[in-house]
Amino acid sequence: MASRLLPAADRLARLSLRARGLASSTVRVRGLDLHVYDGAGRGRLPTVVMLHGLGAGGASFGPMVTALRPHVRRVILPELPGHGFSAHPEDGGDITADLLLDAISDALDGLLDEPAIVLGNSLGGAVALGYALRRPERVRGLMLVSPAGAKMEADEWRELVSAFDLTTTAEARRFLERVYHRPPWFLALFAHEFPDVLKKPAVRQILASVTPEHSPTPDELALLSMPILLLWGRSERLLPASALAWFRQHLPPQTVIEEPAGFGHAPQLEQPERLAARVVAFARECVGSGGVSTR
């Protein structure tokens, strides 16, 4: 049976974001149309870019937009290739880890008119980190929320990838329970469709292309000079604890690492106002610090 509820939810989320003043448009990059939500804010803090995780979309940050816009100059929510309303490459090529970073980099290079606060969650965290390494002059502050991208042992990596191989509703429920701090009641309505999300070509191609070798090296991370905030919720159950330990060891000294109670793997879904408040506070710290914070 074709999925119905989740595609309908995506369309409703786009209508909601449009109603709140965000434009829904496409940017042509790397032979594909990348979908972007983009809206002006009413504040003086820097533009905020938010990058979503694997299988998600820009609308996952939608509840944060209302809380952010009174404080920041602009909010930009790009959708990764093959996710949300972004397209696949027209040449039929696979969506790889390299294409993700190339496409987002090209899009942000064209969209940004000032250095931004760049936030990434999960896979989006790995992309945000890659963008900060590639375009440090365009990143006023880097905010990583349960980011992917840490170097893992081969067995840990295989276990993580296998977690995305879902075939039944029961498996989907168990997976979603790992994503949330406290799973909401309505997950049961969507769980039977969730395996279809993780079977989409973009998701499977990314999982097939990414390897632990895509992780940045400690020497590369040492070059980052912008303020960095890493949030790793105490209810993180999807990524292994060794990933946090790796980031703690190798991110540069100005990194601040926080482990908030009540945050799971994707706190924008459960605690959007609380996460938005931390984004605003971090943006203020970046503006006030001139680029240096302390662990």
| Total number of distinct structural domains | 1
The CATH topology label is: Rossmann fold
Q: Tell me the β content.
A: 15-25%
Radius of gyration: 18 Å
Question: Would you write up a description of this structure?
Answer:
The protein is α/β, with parallel strands linked by helices and 295 residues long. The chain has a single domain (5-289), classed as Rossmann fold, CATH 3.40.50.1820. The protein contains 13 helices and eight strands. Helix 2 (62-68) packs across helix 13 and helix 3 crosses helix 4 (123-134). The radius of gyration is 18 Å and the shape is globular. Mean pLDDT is 92; it is low at 291-295.
Gist of the model:
The protein is α/β, with parallel strands linked by helices and 295 residues long.
Give the helices and strands, then pairings.
Blueprint: H1 5-19, E1 23-29, E2 32-40, E3 48-51, H2 62-68, E4 74-78, H3 97-111, E5 116-122, H4 123-134, E6 139-147, H5 154-162, H6 169-179, H7 187-190, H8 194-198, H9 201-209, H10 218-221, E7 228-231, H11 241-250, E8 255-258, H12 267-270, H13 272-289
Parallel strand pairs: 3-4, 3-5, 5-6, 6-7, 7-8
Antiparallel strand pairs: 1-2, 2-4
Helix pairs in contact: 2-13, 3-4
